[in-house]
Amino acid sequence: MTDSPLRVDPISPVIGAEISGIDLSAPLTPEVVETLHQALMTHLVLFFRDQALSFEQHKAFGRHFGDLHIHPAAPKDVDHPEILVVHGDATVKFVAGELWHSDVSCDVEPPLGSILRIEQVPTSGGDTLFASMYAAYEALSGRLQRFLGELTAVHDGQQYYVGRYGGRDLRDGAYPSAEHPAIRTHPVTGRQALYVNEVFTTGFKELKQAESNALLSFVLKHCAAPEFQCRFRWRQNSVAFWDNRCTQHHAIWDYYPQTRHGYRVTIKGDRPFYAEADVDGRRAVP
Ligand code: SIN
How far apart are CA 135 and CA 133, in angstroms? Predict the structure, then answer.
């Protein structure tokens, strides 16, 4: 992109880049979309400032990267079922994403990415942490990488969603659950990423319960190490676009009783597959 004012400024060597010189409400050329896609593959989460997007513009931006995902359990607007409202104020009992997670990893085909615009910010606080699951994988010993690489992680939506959304607006008539490789291969970069998270993962299928609990506890603590992370300070109309296949995030709810309000568009993804996968994406060597 020789003539473009678009700039990509990394905010850490591991994860996160600020993108400037772009108006996401305007039509984007294929070259700009490709530049953003490449930046996402390199930096895993992209941050934009001053993007006052309408719902239609927000959805149009998301559609450059794939079909839009419908949340399996959250209430849906009739006109915009692809828009997830993210809200915290003095009256709510929970906010979206206040534990480490990859969005809707309990879906059989979990989302590729998510694009969140925050419209109202508290006077301070309400930051979001993002962590690279490539970095988390690469920091493990080779022996543990190989052991986890043969495990299946169970992801359950009910345990998290039931107390929050109450089951009144279920996309499929039931809460989603899925089994995924504990280590997934990114379909674009080919890199290995840990794919286990605090919100949805209940254990490892091949292990005894006590073994599974102990390993899960270790892996979740490992994923949350500060050196895998960046932290984003929102302003009104900031946008974050993250790759759910190789990151986790954690929305910090430290601003009660103030209000934080925004909207998320989520992009459909593919079924995760093992490094040594057969044609169905399952393990080649059980
Ligand atoms: C989410 O998990 O999508 C919410 C993230 C945030 O509110 O920062």
Answer: 5
Mean pLDDT for 3-30 is: 94
Q: Are strands 7-10 and 17-20 parallel, antiparallel or unpaired?
A: antiparallel
The pocket around ligand 1, CB under 6 angstroms, is made up of 86, 96-97, 103, 114, 116, 128, 249, 251, 264
- Within the chain, how many helices (H) and strands (E) appear? 6, 15
Whose CA is closest to 267, among 139, 127, 146, 114? 114
Structure pTM?
A: 0.95
DSSP string spanning 8-76? EEESSSSS-EEEES--TTS---HHHHHHHHHHHHHHSEEEE-S----HHHHHHHHHTSSPBP--SSS--
Q: Confidence band (pLDDT; 50, 70, 90) for 275?
A: confident
DSSP bridge pairs for 156 = 177
Domains of the chain, earliest start first: 7-267 (3.60.130.10)
- Give the residue from 219, 248, 260, 250 showing the smallest Cα distance to 86: 260
Which residue, by CA, sits nearest to atom 6 of ligand 1? Answer: 251
Q: Could you tell me which residues are beta bridge partners of residue 18?
A: 9, 47
